[in-house]
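Worked problem 6 (solution included).
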Amino acid sequence: MIVRNQTQNIDYGKPSFGDRWLFFRQSGEWNWYKRLVFPFLAQMDAEQTHEWMLSALTLAQRTWPGQAVLRAVAGDVAAEPVELFGLTFPNVLGIAAGFDKDVRIAAGLGMLGFGHVEVGTLLPRPQAGNARPRVFRLPEDGAVINRMGFPNVGVDTAVSRLQSLKKSNLIVGASLGKQKETPLEDAADDYRAVMRAVYPYADYLAVNISSPNTPGLRQLQGRDYLSQLLADLQLENRMLAQEQGMKQRPLLVKIAPDLTWAELDEMLTAVSDHQIDGIIATNTTLARKGLSHPNQQEQGGLSGRPLRQRSNEIIRYIYRQTEGRLPIIGVGGVQTAADVRQKLEAGASLVQIFTGLIYEGPGLAGRILREI
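Solution. The predicted structure is:
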């Protein structure tokens, strides 16, 4: 952190705003959120709280006072850019898909210090998702269980927002999904439809075949569907690039943490055969080992701290099996700079956050980037 003129013109009788700000920043790096704000939010419905956060960020990113507040929350961030997939990421840290499902707050997240935002998962048509309640906090475990089921405004509305997004050097990826009612044998049609719509506006594309909350979706990771799906999507990728006169978009696959090593080997073979650009490891888990909060009984995908070790194991395994040739974006259980370092040391090139932002607050990206 850069501190300017700390010792000049100090009024010892009544500290200036700058002095209070400096003391505040040096005495806890945003502990106010955990101590004062989160205990209040924790009394409310988790999904409703997220909606309020989205509304607040949407408002803040539209006005210069709001933008100033967001940048002040991020603080001084001096981070090394990362060259990956032919793209320049401003820093190593991003937001995982699911946080900004409908492209509402990508610009604001960039102002909070994140170098990339993966929007979506996007679908061809609007979808309500599963019945509420469908998001459950497990504070003692640093975790969240969700069974959202891809609630979505549809890709047409999302594209209108992508078109107007002023992203500066922010990298924006798009997570591609399929409608709940679409049969698995027709899933490629949905993925292609979303790909075509977002192609001119997304810097990279992520194929979500690993959410546990759409019935049957994870079967697309298996040998019966995966190879043909990836072949279809890479063909579409080449055709769109040629038609629109642009470079092929990097195509990534987001995988589940619940794969066996044999299943993961099969997936890596398909990824290599079809020249997929990278892996996002991992999505949420169905495992419930070691949890203490009563909400562990809820159905859905578990994210947060309990996923950290398994995510790191999978990153390490992929890195070893591919001899470091396949880029990896690491996701799962990131709440501190040490968590980021672990994923980078395991073999990830970039790291994404989701649940950590819920528990640690909006200053998390800036704090992590200063510490690493």
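Discussion: Residues 226-244 form the longest helix (19 residues).
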